[in-house]
Amino acid sequence: MTDKIMQELAKLQTENRKNREQIKGYVxxxxxxxxEIVKLKKQISDNELKEKMVAKNxxxxxxxxxxxxxxxxxxxxxxxxKHETKTTNRRKK
Length: 93
Hints:
- The chain is mainly α and 93 residues long.
- The chain contains 1 helix and no strands.
- It has one helix spanning 2-92.
- The model has no long low-confidence stretch (mean pLDDT 89).
């Protein structure tokens, strides 16, 4: 009977070691998965930041283009006004 108990104890210890090894493997897989999740979240965050910066830059460039067009129109108006003044001054002489 003692031998039977010792054999059963040995089987249980072996099963216990196997279970612990499996748990270690699962824990490692979970840690690896968590690391991958963190990397992917950072990548998503970086991509969102890039998109925001691109959108901000795009709107800045659009506003700058609009201002440039308005400035060109204003300069043309001023040049036309100066041209008319020179022509009018010549006629007066």
